[in-house]
Design goal:
Helix content: 25-40%
Strand content: 5-15%
Radius of gyration: 23 Å
Order of helices and strands: HHEHHEHEHEHEHEHEHEHH
Largest sheet: 8 strands, parallel, barrel
Strand order of the largest sheet: 1-2-3-4-5-6-7-8
Number of domains: 1
Number of strands: 8
CATH superfamily: Aldolase class I
Shape: globular
CATH topology: TIM Barrel
């Protein structure tokens, strides 16, 4: 029965609030309640020509001191995970593995020595290589063993290889194959040596890796660290709007359904649309966002602005996350959440 005006006016004032503004009783929504970890991928493995052609010198850094300073800059800006491809200051292409992996490990450690003098962070470097003279399959062990050897010689343990990537990159190139056999061998080696695997995955190659690594219990160390690739390197899934955003939400949802509840999910967004895709990840509760010079060439999807400092994209993500109410994790908080046992000595 419809109420008369007199009956409505007789109602207590609070009753009007409850009818007109029921949202005041909504409970908190926990999607964004976890602290955000930021990974900086610097300086990347591409030569500096691309930046020099656009009038930017010193990006990415190539000197030992410059590479260390870029890491320090990113950590001070809010990054707690560092992924780097060390560059030899001598002329030539960046060190990528295969021949000379020993030099690669020594070069990386020299850069890390300088960075760790000022800041603490989780090292999550590229540690696979390939020798096409022997096989098209990637090798997760040889270079990682060199890291371990250098760590033992210098008395720094796992400092330079606290985590290492297991990748499901597409195998349609003429360079290498990231097979499930290689991944199984790599996971066993990493976990038996105290190294945390970071599973960097694309949705289209995930099902077979789920069967051989997770469904049968081959990967054992929980929580699993799963990085969803969206536009990184040759994984071009986010080149069009609005499908980029729908694709991102679909991928995150699919991975969450497939993995245990305690899984630590990261998002490696790249390409022209990295910024809005990363923002969607922050809104959707992703726990790590990867930024940096390796995959973010443009700052915005609609403009041609590019980074002039290694930490530019770190600061952007910190500002966005903070504005949305998400706290930025410290390195100790990140290690505890991800399940990395290594604890570097603190400065006195």
């Amino acid at each position: 029965m419809q109420q008369t005006i007199e009956e409505i006016l007789k109602k207590p004032r609070k009753a009007h609030w409850e009818e007109d503004f029921p949202v005041i009783y909504d409970p908190p929504i926990p999607t964004m309640d976890k602290k955000l970890v930021i990974e900086a991928a610097i300086p990347g493995w591409l030569p500096p020509d691309w930046w020099e052609e656009r009038g930017i010198e010193g990006i990415p850094p190539v000197t030992i001191e410059g590479q260390a300073e870029a890491i320090i800059e990113c950590v001070k800006a809010g990054a707690t995970v560092i992924h780097t491809h060390p560059r030899d200051p001598n002329p030539g292409p960046p060190m990528f593995g295969a021949a000379g992996s020993r030099r690669h490990a020594e070069l990386l450690s020299e850069i890390m020595d300088l960075a760790y003098e000022e800041v603490d962070f989780i090292s999550a470097h590229h540690s696979w290589t390939m020798d096409l003279r022997k096989s098209r399959d990637v090798d997760y062990i040889s270079m990682t063993q060199e890291y371990l050897n250098v760590g033992e010689e210098k008395g720094i343990g796992l400092r330079d290889v606290q985590s290492a990537l297991i990748m499901t990159e597409a195998a349609y190139t003429d360079k290498c194959v990231m097979s499930t056999d290689a991944a199984m061998e790599g996971v066993t080696f990493f976990e038996s040596n105290g190294i945390k695997p970071m599973f960097s995955m694309q949705s289209f190659s995930f099902p077979k890796f789920r069967r051989v690594l997770f469904d049968n219990g081959h990967a054992k160390k929980r929580p699993f660290w799963v990085a969803i690739q969206m536009g990184k390197h040759n994984d071009d899934q986010i080149w069009s709007d609005p499908w980029s955003y729908i694709q991102t939400i679909n991928n995150i949802s699919m991975f969450r359904e497939a993995f245990p509840e305690d899984t630590f999910f990261a998002l490696h967004a790249a390409g022209r649309n990295w910024l809005p895709v990363a923002t969607i990840g922050i809104l959707y509760g992703i726990e790590l966002i990867r930024v940096g010079l390796e995959d973010q060439f443009w700052l915005y999807p609609h403009r041609d602005d590019i980074s002039r400092h290694a930490s530019d994209t770190v600061k952007m993500v910190v500002d966005i996350a903070t504005a949305l109410g998400r706290e930025i994790a410290t390195v100790d908080e990140a290690r505890e959440r991800i399940g990395i046992e290594y604890r570097p000595p603190h400065k006195q």
